[in-house]
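Could you help me review a protein record that somebody else here produced? What it holds is a sequence and that sequence's fold in token form. I have pasted the whole thing underneath without changing anything:
=====
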Amino acid sequence: MHPTRMTRMNVKTILLSLTAVFLLVILYNFIAAWHFPDTSWPLEKGEKTKLDSEIIQKFEADRDGLSKIKILFGDSDVSPGGTFSLKVFDESCQEPVRSAKLDIRELNSDTTVDFVFPRIESSKGKVYCLKLSYSQKKGGKKANIFVIGNTMKQNKYFSINGQEMAGQSVSMRPAYKKASLFEDAGELNERISQYKPWFLKHYFLWFISIGFILLSIGLVTILILL
């Protein structure tokens, strides 16, 4: 085979391999981001309170697959930053179940801070004790967090900086994952379908989405081979 032709084939093989890896990375990150929030929990800008020591929040999970806690913090000048430590315990607040840490440099009240942890398979109906603390770097300032009125039956107990506050909670929202990618995709389809016309629902949406992905991959492959 002519050397030039072999070189071209090698280049095409490399490009196709890189494209496949790139698509797999995108797919992996997309799947990892699938968490379905419990929208019955209010995310509101309530009373802004400084997090001096620790937040303790007991709540009942509505579904299996608890995998993320979204928390709304108040605008805070926390530079040069610090570390949030979130720990999920059983109802007694003694037995650790999950944990997550996040390093932050700023807090914006327009976006939540999301604490992601491995899926808890059988979480439905169980009460969990969430503990949240913040350790600022030397010279840094304390973080502000929103405390809101919350009389939901799922909200079992709340205290901040050692002070119990009945009928209130941190501005948070639990989120869940299904047991498999197929189930996650089904729920995503169902949620999207609630806001779409009939021809963009259920099997129609599946057909359009999969078709678009296959056509995109096919087009990229053809362009590389040509």
In short: The mean pLDDT is 81.
